[in-house]
Structures are given as structure tokens and as C-alpha cells.
Amino acid sequence: MSEGRAPLPPTALVLCAVASVQTGGAVAKGLFDDVGPGGAVLLRVAFAALVLAALWRPRVRAIAREDRMLVVGFGVALAGMNFAFYSALDLIPLGVAVTLEFVGPLGVAVALSRRAVDVLWVVLAAAGILLLSDPVGGGTELGGVLLALLAGAFWAAYILLSARVGRRVPGGTGLAVALGVSTVVLLPVGVGQGGGALLEPGVLAVGFAVAMLSSAVPYSLELEALRHLPARVFGVLMSLEPAMAALAGYVVLEEVLGVGELAGIALVVAASAGAARSSGDAPPPRD
Q1: What would the pLDDT profile of 161-195 be if each residue is shown by its tens digit?
Q2: pLDDT digits (tens, 9 = 90+) for 232-272
Q3: Contact at 8 Å (CB) between 189 and 36?
């Protein structure tokens, strides 16, 4: 790219990254009948680990001894986030799962901001979560709701650990090694659910596509966008993920959401955007 300029405006890069992530989630759900959510997440993380290892050639010896457990914890958080999310996706629509998972980065943004207006974002998010969990109508699978919220908790841990790893480990070594750790952690459940189907060419091809759509492509687009875009604006644009997830679920998976679910998504998007503007910090790219 000449003169450091991106081929698309930075806002378009972020929106393309968001669309890529959510399309990847929709495609991954199509693998569940063959390999289960465990097998699908194993393929995604393993392929992402291989691609990043090839690109960055991480050196484990470059990680100081006192930082190795930090990187291991980072990898465990990554594995927990992805497995809990895919397990939730097996039970509830994509748009609902992504919206509930967003309580993680929202909680981090609110906790780090500590402004009075953050109370408003918490109230909006809580109202949205109540609408999505549907405690009165009982139309939403409770197990899926709890798993999505658990994924959000792991996402919060991922954000905090990502910042520490980024400061203490040079280059992309920390993330690349953490993805390797995640692959090892996910092996038992992935093989247990996927079995021999994990080695089928068609399944491997879809798994590779999911890894590219959900990790490699958006990661590259987000990093390029952050070169030209204020962190606060980036955070607000990333808050559109739940809405994009609902659209991807409708287009790819034919998941039709009710009025209450759409209202819940809108409330969480508003809360996330408001919290991002208040904090001014950009969340790290999600893998």
C-alpha cells in the first residue's frame, strides 16, 4: 500500500471486519451437525494458530520465564471464550448469542471508565439482556443464555490479558503461542465431539474458511483501520457486531428474531457504543 494509505476508508475496513467475523460464525454453525460446536471451534482455533505461526514465526524462548504462565492463561481464556460461544450458538440464534457475549467488553469498558454516565450504559445493557433472555415468555434456551454470558466473561478476561501480554511479549509471539495453547486445551472436547469427521476434506475446508473469516481477515482489517482511526471511533463501530450478527443469522442461517429480541439487541448496541465513547479505548482484535 503506497504512502501508508488503506485501499478503503478505515470505517469501511472496520465494518468489513465485523461482517467477516459474523459471517464466519454463521458458517461455523453449519458445521455443528458434522462435528459439533467443539469440533468446529477446534478447527477454527487450530487453523488460526497455524496461519499466525507461519506469518509471525513465534519464538517461545523470547517469552520471559515469568511471563509464560501469563501467556498460558491468555490461551486458556481464548479457548474458553470460543468454546462457550460456539456451545451457546448451538442453542440460541447468532444475533442473540453475540449480543449476550458483548457484556464482557462492555463490562471492561465501564469498569475502566468510571464515569457517572456509565450507570446509563449498565441499565441499557441490563434491559437488553432481560429482553433477550425472555424470563417471562421462556422462548429462549436458558442454557444458551448462560453459555453466551460465560463467553462474555472469558472475553473480558481475554481483553485484560491481551493488554498485559501485548506489553510484555514482543510482536505477535504472545498471541501465536496463546493460540497454540488454546488448540491443545480444545483437543479433548473437539476430538470427542467431532471424531473422524474432523479429517473429512469438506469439513476441513469449511473449518479453514471459518478460521480465515473469524480470525485472520478481521484481525488484519482491524489492525489497518487502527492506524488511521481514533480508538474511540473504532470502539463505537465495533459495537455494531450484535446487529451485524443478527443480519448474518438471518441471511445465512434464516434465523428470524422477534421484536423483543431485536429491541434487546438495539439496547445492548446503544450501551456498548456509549461505553466505547466514554472510555476512548479500543478493544483488541478478537480471535
Answers
A1: 988 888 888 777 888 899 999 999 999 999 999 99
A2: 788 888 889 999 999 999 999 999 998 989 999 999 999 88
A3: no
Question: Nearest CA to 239 among 127, 140, 125, 134?
Answer: 125
CA–CA distances in Å: residue 107 to residues 1, 227, 242, 252: 37, 25, 16, 30
How far apart (Å, rounded) are the C-alpha atoms in residues 81 and 213? Answer: 17
| Contact (Cβ atoms closer than 8 angstroms) between residue 133 and residue 140 | yes
Residue 242's nearest CA partner among 166, 162, 155 is: 155
User: 72 burial class (0-12, 13-18, 19+ CB within 10 angstroms)?
Assistant: middle
Half-sphere exposure of 72 (CA within 13 A, CB side): 6
Judged by DSSP in three states, 134 sits in coil
Cell of 285: 482484535
- Single pTM value for the model: 0.89
CB 72 within 8 A of CB 241: no
Asked whether 29 and 21 are in contact (CB, 8 A), the reply is no
